[in-house]
Structures are given as structure tokens and as C-alpha cells.
Structure prediction request, 360 residues.
Amino acid sequence: MAKSPEQEHPQEAFGWAARDPSGLLSPFKFSRRATGEKDVKFKVLFCGICHSDLHSVKNEWGFSTYPLVPGHEIVGEVVEVGSKVEKFKVGDKVGVGCLVGSCGSCDNCHDHLENYCPKMILTYGAIYHDGTMTYGGYSNMMVVNEHFAIKFPQNMPLDAGAPLLCAGITVYSPMRFFGLDRPGVHLGVVGLGGLGHVAVKFAKAMGVKVTVISSSPGKREEAVQRLGADAFLVSSDINQIQAAMGTMDGIIDTVSAVHPMLPLIGLLKHNGKLVLIGAPDRPLELPVFPLIMGRKIVAGSCIGGMKETQEMIDFAAKHKITADIEVISIDHLNTAMDRLAKGDVKYRFVIDIGNTLKQA
Prediction:
């Protein structure tokens, strides 16, 4: 098979990679393709650390390929554009989320749902159209087809905006699709972590009544006083759960550990929707009888398409929504991964790539 022009002239790149399921990351040199006619090349300035990155470096989902350069909450500055690029120019601020490719011809792609394309290409750990491995944003630069790049609004901080490219669209898309995005709706948010705190912010900006459901009683003040949630339930408090039964139009469940479904289904009104966006590594037990008796729905949702992701970032900029972050240097990456595994972050680590990533 003949090499494409992009493969003939690869560009040297460097970052940090995991080499095995121990999950330890260290400096790594690799190649990016040459900038094609529809490609945007950008210098990476910040990259968020998603819980998916932790699962992936440790191969907890069983499909990681090494060496693996994680990172799919990536923002930077355009340094080169291909001859047929229309959306971007040199100097623009740009973001890349979980996707860098799709088939472009299936019904999902035509409907702006590239995230559900059977041939969707993930930002890292996947095989690109040219047969090469995709490497993520824990690196000095990226080359991406302009269709999969997001234009960052001028007033959006790059560091605190980066996590929205995964966490933001992951909560925004199901709120829009399932009609949980307007005044008069009562939404439950399960888990107050990287996804949950952003879900509260988006929901409040949409005029929704929000109840945070958490296993940690100590997060009540954070949820209500600082993030603006209307109510707070401790998931293990039977009396609190009983008192709220049948009051919610929908629930966004962000928890990625195994947990009981029955109490959450009970909180829903009839026709209520429980939407799972956390990804536990073991199956959940699903009680069917309460679904039948209330015509309730249990659904899933996976990020969003490119059009909706741009819509999300523009909405966030308009309403001044950002993630709560702790900025780290690349040298503290492994420590941050250990802390993330213990839930010791409020609420998202972001790596200062531009100032701290140096070529080994």
C-alpha cells in the first residue's frame, strides 16, 4: 500500500506515554502526520486529565494498545493550516475532544452524530484512516482534520475550558436530547466529581431545578452553596431518598463505580429518564419491575457530535461555565493519576503542556 503525502513527511512530536498496564507515564517521542490540505496543526497549551485516561493507561476496559499517549481534553493555538481549511487560521485558539475521525458517509455522520459512527476514531489508542496509531494531547502538538476541531470563543479560558471538550459535552448532550434542559424540569445529578459539577453548572444555566445525589454528606455545602444546586440527597440515607421518591423528571448518573439502580429509578416520576454517562468496569444490576410500572427509561449517552460540541462550548462561553480545575506540570502527571484514582481532586486536573512539557 502506497504511503500518502502526509505519511511521507511525518513531523516529530513528543509527549508522555504509558508503556504497560502499570499505568506509569514517562517521556515518549513519536511522529505526527504531515499537515494535510484539510488539516489544522496546533501547539498544545493545556490538556485535561479525564477518568477515561486513567482507565485507559491501566487497560481497565481491556482494549488499550501501548505505547499509549492519553488526553482528549486538548486546547492550543493553531500554527499551520492546510490549503483547503476554511474554519481556522494561524493564531486561532482551538480544541480537540474525544474524536479525530469518522467515516463521514453513514446516517449518523450525516446527522452530525459522528460520536455514534461505527467507524468513529478516538483521539488516542485507535487506528487512523492511514493505518497509524492515534496519540492524544499529553504531547507538544496535534494534527487534526478541521471537521474535528472546535473553535474556542475569545472569552473562554483555555485551561478551565479544556475539560468541557469531554466532561462538558458528556453532560450537555443528554440534557438536550432527553429534554432535561428547560425551566420546570427537575433533574437529579448523581456524583459530584469531574462530570457532576459541570452538569450542575449547565443545568442551572438552562433554568433547571437541580438535586445533587451523592454518597458523601460532606459535599452538601459545595453542591448547594457554591455550585448553586437546589437540593442535596445523601444516597445512603433511606429517609432522604424516600422523601424524594417520584419527584424527578430525569437523572444524569455520572458515577463510574458499581452502585444500586433501584433507589435512582424510585426517584423518577412516571416517564422519567435515568441516563448513565459513567462507565463502571462491571455490569450493573437493573431491576425491571419498577421500570414497567412507571414507564421509565434507562438510557446511555456518549459525548456528542462535532456540531453539538461547538454549540456546547459557545453556550458555556455565553454563560461563563468552566470546569473547576487544578493545574499541574507534566512532571506531576503520575502523582495526579494516583490522586485521581483516589478521588482526590476538585474537580479536574489540567496539565500545563505549553509551559512544562520539554523534549527529553
